[in-house]
Design goal:
- The complex is a heterodimer of chains A (355) and B (338).
- With 355 residues, chain A is an alpha/beta fold.
- Chain A is built from 14 helices and 14 strands.
- Helices cover 34% and strands 21% of the residues of chain A.
- In chain A, strand 11 and strand 12 form a beta hairpin.
- Chain A is globular and about 65 Å long.
- Helices cover 36% and strands 23% of the residues of chain B.
- Chain B contains 13 helices and twelve strands.
- In chain B, helix 7 packs parallel to helix 8.
- Chain B is globular and about 75 Å long.
- Classes of the chains: A alpha/beta (355), B alpha/beta (338).
- At the A-B interface, helix 9, helix 10 and helix 12 of A face helix 8, helix 9, helix 10 and helix 11 of B.
Chain lengths: 355, 338
């Protein structure tokens, strides 16, 4: 990175005793509910001659604990509706948690006002799934990339901003001469590069990427994934990477957290998770990846489908589909427990040695 | 004679900017009970190819040449009346998004009975019994209840099962499935694909599976076509193409998969992106992205830029590339030197 040293210092949060061992991001017992019942008047119902207030919630996240270490790429995988995107958005402060805390670099950030959050926003950036929706169609690429710089570096002059924009455009493989074009003039892969450039423009330490390659074609996915890995090595980035594509996780992730219905059921290093999945849901998930090698897949068939997050199952959220469920699973919520190799699994069957 | 014979199919779209050739010179056959995959990225023309089989291309698109023959009848010149006897009856389709396919204001039962009555003289009662039987075949829990439910009451996986039940309703000879599991989660996708595979085998139904997912194709199909910029660039037995792809694009596509690389290493990417169909490069449409276009002396091979490559036989596969023989020789030398 070629940046004037003076420009890098300003607006930086005083981080006095930087502890390298301390996780960059800590999520503590995070819960998020969304109301389905509308406003107060919508919630009133007549029941047995009385007016009753009736509320229903989608329980999107139910007690998630995650630590993200400096320099790692933590992948969160799960199927649609498991709450992985809600975790990403809550971390970025786009949603406020119903309960729980989020600490960034030792500081609690979930209760801050948007003004107080501003210095943290510079250090954490987000890349969204759909580059067709995340770029403002009325702004040129130049304007799109200048906007975060103007906001976070109000003292920079025009030349400094122009230099920085050129540098990030080059680093993502977009010709700086294309700055005057609009988003619609680019292909999907190029748009996602621009979205990545926008995130990198303010030199963040931490990037939340929510399904950044799912909307792209196979040959373009590899290009964008390579770009994200390059950026990680060159800029020492830490990623929270949300995806449903397990093949990508295996390639990209340092550690993996598997989510099901708003809870984390297993956290492990990527190699351990893929060679030795412990949780029955992880096992089923891994067995259903379509692979090139085997032409007759023997995937683990799960009963039924994911229950609705409006009425959560009692006990373990997975018990209705789990082949190993017993009465305890139906009543008691399993907690994440560390195994001898450092993997964390939330499963009674694993704990009891039945699995 | 094959059950379905497609030869030199040419579909164009007459747009204001001029004619766009969506697919050109697409030829393939499908035997009874055979499963064929059509693979390609978005814009490769795979869906247009599937839709044109049943003459479902709507204006401004039209079939400009070639033929689709089913049991000896030419479908692309047939009257709408004649086609209606084949669509849904002998050849049925499964689309990507089940919510768009099902009618939201009719119950599942009504839609299935309607479909049966359109093609057969049958009482409502018998039709309902057939519908129930098909719902059982696609392993839907409590099928009796589902007949009276509406599409919005069911989950995505359940809706796609119902679509499969409807596709099988009239015991067709061929099912064309256009990205049937793209909108679904992996565990559900695996279930649906396994179900589709079982049913096709049980009833000896041919399957044309359109997808961008090489993993799915390799698990389900026996033969495959790879499409690029409106043309078939490689075809042959699925296993052979996956294990030993001949065309540089197919090689690139397979090598770009994360599972082909060591975790943490750089993925093998294909540079650039697919050209727009209205502005195709000359010669081989893949040449601007191809790694093998230059000879060892650094000179660009003129044939790649000037001539559209024809099919070259390689084992049981055919690849549309000028350099198939040379590339094979290169790979052989490389293997020997190792």
């Amino acid at each position: 990175m070629s940046m004037p040293a003076s420009a890098r210092v300003d607006n930086h949060i005083p981080a006095e005793n930087v502890d390298v061992a301390q996780p960059l991001l800590q999520i503590r017992d995070l819960r998020k509910r969304f109301s389905l019942s509308g406003d107060f008047l919508d919630q009133l119902r007549f029941k047995g001659g009385k007016l009753v207030r009736h509320q229903e919630h989608v329980h999107a996240i139910n007690g998630v604990n995650l630590d993200i270490k400096r320099g790692e790429a933590l992948c969160v995988v799960g199927e649609s509706g498991c709450g992985k995107s809600t975790v990403a958005r809550t971390v970025m402060g786009l949603l406020s948690p119903s309960e729980g805390e989020i600490h960034f670099d030792g500081q609690r950030i979930d209760h801050l006002s948007s003004r107080q959050l501003l210095p943290y926003r510079k250090r954490m950036q987000m890349i969204f799934q759909n580059p067709y929706a995340s770029l403002n169609p009325r702004m040129t690429i130049q304007q799109t990339l200048e906007e975060p710089l103007r906001l976070h570096h109000p003292k920079w002059n025009r030349q400094q901003i122009a230099d920085k924009v050129e540098e990030v455009m080059r680093s993502v493989g977009i010709d700086p001469d294309w700055g005057k074009r609009f988003g619609h003039e680019f292909s999907g892969g190029q748009r996602q590069r621009i979205a990545i450039a926008r995130a990198l423009a303010v030199d963040p330490e931490f990037i939340v990427a929510d399904e950044p390659i799912s909307a792209l074609d196979v040959s373009i996915q590899a290009q964008v994934l390579n770009l994200l890995m390059e950026a990680q090595h060159e800029r020492h980035l830490t990623y929270l990477f949300i995806t449903h594509d397990l093949a990508v996780v295996e390639h990209f992730g340092t550690r993996v957290a598997v989510m099901y219905l708003g809870t984390v059921c297993e956290i492990a290093t990527t190699a351990t998770l893929f060679s030795k999945p412990r949780h029955p849901y992880t096992q089923a998930l891994l067995s259903s990846i379509p692979r090139l090698e085997d032409d007759r897949p023997q995937h683990i068939r799960l009963k039924g489908e994911v229950p609705t997050p409006v009425h959560l199952p009692s006990g373990c959220v997975f018990h209705g589909r789990c082949p190993y469920a017993n009465p305890r699973c139906r009543e008691e919520i399993p907690l994440l427990q560390m195994q001898h190799d450092g993997t964390h699994v939330a499963c009674h069957a694993v704990e009891e040695g039945r699995l | 004679m094959a059950l379905l014979e497609v030869s030199q199919l040419d579909v164009r779209f007459a747009l204001r900017q001029g004619e766009v050739k969506a697919i050109r010179d697409v030829s393939f056959t499908l035997e009874r009970g055979e499963r064929l995959g059509i693979v390609g990225e978005s814009g490769a023309g795979k869906s247009v190819a599937a839709f044109s089989l049943l003459n479902l291309i709507s204006k401004p698109g039209f079939i400009a040449g070639g033929s689709v023959r089913f049991e000896g009848q030419t479908l692309n010149t047939m009257s709408e009346r004649g086609l209606r006897k084949i669509r849904g009856n002998r050849i049925s389709m499964i689309f990507q998004d089940p919510m768009m396919t099902l009618n939201p204001v009719l119950s599942i039962g009504e839609q299935m009975v309607e479909c049966l009555k359109a093609h057969r003289r049958i009482s409502s009662r018998d039709a309902r019994a057939i519908a129930l039987d098909k719902l059982r075949q696609v392993q839907i829990p409590s099928p009796e209840k589902r007949l009276d439910q509406y599409p919005h009451e069911l989950s995505g996986g359940m809706r796609q099962r119902i679509i499969i039940a409807i596709a099988l309703l009239l015991d067709p000879d061929i099912i064309i499935a256009d990205e049937p599991t793209t909108a679904l989660d992996v565990t559900i996708q695996a279930e649906i694909m396994a179900l589709l595979l079982d049913l096709c085998e049980q009833h000896n139904v041919g399957l044309i599976l359109i997808t961008h997912d090489l993993g799915v194709v390799s698990q389900v199909t026996q033969r495959m076509l790879v499409m690029y910029a409106g043309r078939v660039i490689e075809q042959g037995p699925t296993r052979e193409i996956i294990n030993d792809p001949q065309h540089p694009y197919t090689q690139g596509l397979i090598n770009a998969l994360p599972q082909m690389a060591t975790p943490g290493e750089k993925l093998n990417q294909i540079r650039g992106s697919m050209p727009s169909l209205s502005n195709l490069p000359s010669g081989c449409a893949f040449h601007p992205r191809c790694d093998f276009i230059r000879r060892t002396d650094g000179q660009v091979r003129p044939a790649c830029i000037e001539q559209v490559p024809g099919f070259v036989q390689a084992g049981n596969c055919q690849a549309a590339c000028h350099m198939v023989a040379e590339l094979q020789e290169d790979r052989r030398l490389k293997e020997e030197s190792q």
